[in-house]
Amino acid sequence: MTSDEPRWLTDEQQRAWRQWLLLTARLPARLNRQLLADSELSLPDFDVLVHLTDVDSGRLRVLELGRALQWEKSRLSHHLTRMERRGLVRREDCAADGRGFEVVVTDAGLAALRAAAPAHVETVQQLVFDGLSAAQVRAMADIADTVLARLGD
Amino acid sequence: MTSDEPRWLTDEQQRAWRQWLLLTARLPARLNRQLLADSELSLPDFDVLVHLTDVDSGRLRVLELGRALQWEKSRLSHHLTRMERRGLVRREDCAADGRGFEVVVTDAGLAALRAAAPAHVETVQQLVFDGLSAAQVRAMADIADTVLARLGD
DNA sequence: CGCTTCTGGTTGACATGTCACCGATCGCGG
DNA sequence: CCGCGATCGGTGACATGTCAACCAGAAGCG
């Protein structure tokens, strides 16, 4: 038996896979370009600020933020350093745990987010949701859920 | 009328969107890690080699390769330089057009691709397709087609 | 032919992301 | 209280990706 023969993709799968690869490369690139052109924020900056402002306090432990974004800690650390240098967020010592820090949105960060959001959301609407039926949106969420579950954590 | 009020995402859309963002961040990262662990290739390397070996001659104009991958030309140029340094591909002058180059897979590149492919395909199967129904695979392709069409080109 | 413009591709500076490793603190068992 | 592994987070070196500027050959046009 050739039981160790790889399970190659069927034509259907191959087509879906290649299209998906193209999409995951091009859509974020496009959104990033739109954000940079219309605001002071990059797409990663935007993500960080969205998650921070999701919470009332506008303040999150680095670890919590990392969990929400699902970023590696070193990536997050580097990015926070860059955002801190630009005055978008601030690190503050954490009273409860001497090792940790809390990340706080600054006024400038909040202002930048508010300025960037409308055009960004409109772009997402136009590029993605305007073309999809409600059923497709559900399918998209289901597919993402399924695969994310297989990725673990 | 507040006709310039941004069209915020509905809850359904918001959920689908956030899951999709997570997926597009984490799945490529995972695939890249698997490739690097099990072979000499990164995910971008793999993409380049797949497209090159798609053609019988194993040789493509830089421009053609760029179109197939949908990469920016400078990204492709940088990446080819790195791959050339590692002996995976070779640039050759193009007879038909003095400005252009042809990219050729080397024996080492071909060997690396053949060595990396089985484990990579198996990983894609396990993480993605084993969890999805045939209908979901079709939905995935349709969604990708639709959004790619809206991205233009 | 000679001039301009367009095109294929490269380069350098810089932003982003990853890996491997470090250092401090916490928390728990002895 | 001490010791020690686990946890929180940062750092440096490096790979990857982007933007803008550039250069050489091609192509159109007088």
Q: In words, what does this structure look like?
A:
2 copies of one chain form a homodimer. Chain A is mainly alpha-helical and 153 residues long. Chain A has a single domain, classed as Arc Repressor Mutant, subunit A (Orthogonal Bundle), CATH 1.10.10.10. Chain A has 6 helices and 3 strands. Chain A has a 3-stranded antiparallel β-sheet. In chain A, helix 1 crosses helix 5 and helix 2 crosses helix 5. The longest helix of chain A is centred in the N-terminal third of the chain and has 28 residues. The first copy, chain A, starts with 10 loop residues before the first helix and ends with a helix. In chain A, 22% of the residues are buried. At the A-B interface, helix 1, helix 5 and helix 6 of A face helix 1, helix 5 and helix 6 of B. The first copy, chain A, binds a DNA duplex (30 and 30 nucleotides) through helix 1, helix 3 and helix 4.
